[in-house]
Amino acid sequence: MPMAARPPPARPHIGINPANRFSSYSVAEWVDDDAWDSGSDSESPTKTAWKRQASTSTAPKAVPRTAQNNSSSSTLASSYTHLHAPSPSSYPPKFEVQPPRNGWTIVNKQGGNRRNSEVHHDTESIQEEAADVELEGDMVVGELDPEDPEDVAAPLTVSGKPKPDKSAIREDVDEIVNDPLHLARRSPKRRRSSRSQYDSSVHEGSEKLIRERSIKSNRRDKFIQCIIHDDVDMAQLRKLAWNGVPSDLRAVAWPLLLGYLPLPASSRAPTLVRKRQEYLSLVELAFARNREGLDQQIWHQIEIDVPRTRPGVKLWMHGSTQRSLERILYVWAIRHPASGYVQGINDLVTPFFQVFLSAYIDSDPEEFDPSLLPENVLNAIEADSFWCLSRLLDGIQDNYIATQPGIHRSVKRMAELVARIDPHLESENVEFMQFAFRWMNCLLMREISVENTIRMWDTYLAEGPDAFSQFHLYVCSAFLVKWSKKLREMDFQGIIMFLQSLPTQGWGDHEIELLLSEAFVHYSTWHNAQSHFGK
Q1: 423 vs 331, 427, 440, 451, CA distance in Å?
Q2: What is the CA radius of gyration of the chain?
Q3: How far is CA 416 from the centre of its chain?
Q4: How confident is the model at residue 500 (pLDDT cuts 50, 70, 90)?
């Protein structure tokens, strides 16, 4: 049975005092809410009223979902701003790809996010090809193959909007729901390449591509052999996961690494059935009396923050996704009265939800509407996301209790560590609390994309249960030192503005892996040095 709900402790108000060095701050000196970067606590004037909320019931027996209502989602999402950032959002913006025109697709090859320059291609198998081809300006990708349903533009309604397309849903969703090992047994789907990829310049690097694909295939085979074993070798799984988990296996590898799924194969399916039913029971109990039975302080903040989660990303603007997120956050909050709900926890749900959603579809999860899924599938995604979030937060809960001692401790240690790695930054009088609070509170999710975060969490989960507090400290330090040269050329205000709106929009796995490697070097050098942190 869940713990009795009661109002959470008052959340500390965080502010900025540029006149003081980091070492001189005290909790009493923080007088406003800027460092949270979650917008104002006051209700948005465009926030939906409870009457509308009731029509898309959040509560209900068996976690009902209704048709999405996005009339105000984009308006609410756009209100999520950072007071100091020059961009209108504190999240990395998502590049938009030009829509297909007359069977052709215009692909921007000048800068930007490489992921979005590879339309209709398997990013794991084709990304290297795109990197090897030097092109000027825009590239026209050849006529789309009508035999491949993924390459056919979605039919339009009279209003000009695409009709809901369920073709992206895998045919084996029931098998995946009932048997987690089905993810390891099935063959990964390979999308066909368009004709432009048979250009002679690509053929020149074919040997390199074949070699790289062979390496990836071998790594995937090793993952499968590890996962389907009767009793998973956790040490081997962590060793494999450190360098990244194949995208189609994350939905089974992550729960194993988090301890949500048991290591013996025979226990996994029964555990999933039991835990998913337990979550549904918690939801039914929490929302049994609709709004009247909710903790109003917790619900009010969740109701404000959910529409602000990942603004501009279609997945998180759909009503069905937002209802799931509301339930996950509220149930977690009432089960953890020491912290309740704290702004920033909403961000931590998004990687789990997208990873589990990806297991059931063959398209970009950020573009998918979960309301198209069968109810039992969406229930499973929601429950699995909840339990994995709970496992993650168990290790960093002191980041979210009253006065947030975990975050203050981590920021202090980061300042001391950076002073040893790059003393020049200390001479710039950088106020770490002005930017690093958010880095710790949201685990860098406001600085990089969800895709980047998912790759980073592969390594965090491989590092073990303390990685989200201990190893993350070294990742943040390496992240700051990466910008050291630019920061030395800026004044105080420029430094703060830059650090709150970093140019990471084009980052892919390569940049994240370099960052993780640098962090590991610092971790190996300093973690066991007893005197490198102040007492």
Answers
A1: 45, 7, 22, 32
A2: 23
A3: 28
A4: confident
Query: How deeply is 427 buried, as exposed, middle or buried, from its count of CB atoms within 10 A (0-12, 13-18, 19+)?
Result: exposed
Q: Which residues pair with 156 in a beta bridge?
A: 162
Token pair listed for 226: 């590890």
pLDDT tens-digit series, residues 83-106: 233 333 445 555 444 444 444 433
Both structure tokens of 303: 């109701």
Q: Where are the alpha helices (DSSP H) in 65-205?
A: 73-78, 123-132, 173-178, 182-185, 200-203
**Looking at per-residue confidence, does 13 or 349 come out higher?**
349
Residue 527: what pLDDT?
84
DSSP 83: S
Kindly report the pTM of this predicted structure. Answer: 0.70
Q: Buried (b) or exposed (e) across 43-82, using 16+ Cβ within 10 A?
A: ebeebbeeeebeebebbbeebebeebbbeebeebbebbbb
For residues 182-209, b (16+ Cβ closer than 10 Å) or e, as one string? bbbeeeeeeeebbebbeeeebeeeeeeb
Answer yes or no: is pLDDT of 235 > 60: yes
Tally of helices (H runs) and strands (E runs) in the chain: 22, 2
- Measured in degrees and rounded to the nearest 5, phi and psi for residue 140 equal -95, 115
CB 452 within 8 A of CB 512: yes
CA distances to 28, 343, 450, 479 from 445, rounded to whole Å, are: 27, 13, 7, 13
CB-based contact 332:346 (threshold 8 Å): no
- pLDDT tens, residue by residue, 54-71: 334 444 444 444 444 443
Please say whether the beta carbons of 535 and 409 come within 8 A: no
Cα 290 from Cα 214, distance rounded (Å): 54
Helices (H), ranges, 306-358: 319-335, 345-358
Q: Mind giving me the DSSP string for 95-133?
A: PPPPPPBTTBEEEE-SSS-GGGGSTTS-HHHHHHHHHH-
Q: What sign for the dihedral angle of Cα 128, 134, 138, 143?
A: negative
Task: State the Cα–Cα distance between residues 287 and 285, nearest whole angstrom.
Answer: 6
